[in-house]
Amino acid sequence: MKALYIASTGMSAQERNVEVISNNIANMRTTGFKRQRAEFQDLLYQSYRRAGAETSDQGTVVPVGVEIGSGVRTAATPRVMSQGNVVPTEKELDVAIRGEGYFIVELPDGRTAYTRDGTFERDNTGMLVNVDGYQIQPGIVIPDGANAVSISADGVVQAFMNNDSAPTQLGQIQLARFVNKAGLASIGDNLFVETGSSGPAQLGVPNQDGMGNVLQAYLEMANVNAVTEIADLIAAQRAYEMNARVISGADEMLAATSNLR
């Protein structure tokens, strides 16, 4: 009975849906996290009577055919790249992006990754790095003795050196943006890498060329809405239960057929 297989694809799809929702909820407090949603497609149809087929020599046609679907599959789990809430942290090396753009990070293997997580620190050489020690690109060194480090809205990093009366510019934060940012591939650790779908990175400085600005001593929180996720979770659970009921009903029909013998 095809209903068993069809309902099983529905249960599998809703199981994947719950996995996506659970990952969103688990990352509600993850800096710069972008929520995902599950998207579905129906499977191939078996046509028992095709619409438009001729039913007589006079040219009459079937107005409505008979098609039975094969179920559902998970087509994609795209990320929703909307802006998350920006909250103050009172830490001078925390930086949030307000608008378009990603910070540029060099991975240990030489690859370039991108992130919305602006939780930055200084390593033992004064280099600006993320929490895993990966250097921010282009490299910015905040030397020992630098005081009152400031990061402007357009990404200029300055500090007072020793007893200087005027600040010294230490570097310029660059951002990257993509034609299709939802096409970026997540590699964990709040990092993304470009793909053929995202297109190449377009580099620029904050407040220019469509890039957002940056806010010092702020961080961007996850764009996960707890109420929405719980509502989606309940809907997914109900859909799973209904597909399970279909399997139970199909099993009862098969049992009734067997008892006729």
TrEMBL record:
It is found in: Bacterial flagellum basal body. Residues 216-260 form the Flagellar basal-body/hook protein C-terminal domain. SUPFAM superfamilies: Flagellar hook protein flgE. Its main location: other. Residues 96-159 form the Flagellar hook protein FlgE/F/G-like D1 domain. The keyword GTP-binding does not apply. GO terms for cellular component: bacterial-type flagellum basal body, distal rod. The basal body constitutes a major portion of the flagellar organelle and consists of four rings (L,P,S, and M) mounted on a central rod. The rod consists of about 26 subunits of FlgG in the distal portion, and FlgB, FlgC and FlgF are thought to build up the proximal portion of the rod with about 6 subunits each. Belongs to the flagella basal body rod proteins family. This is Flagellar basal-body rod protein FlgG. It comes from Arsenicitalea aurantiaca. The gene is flgG.
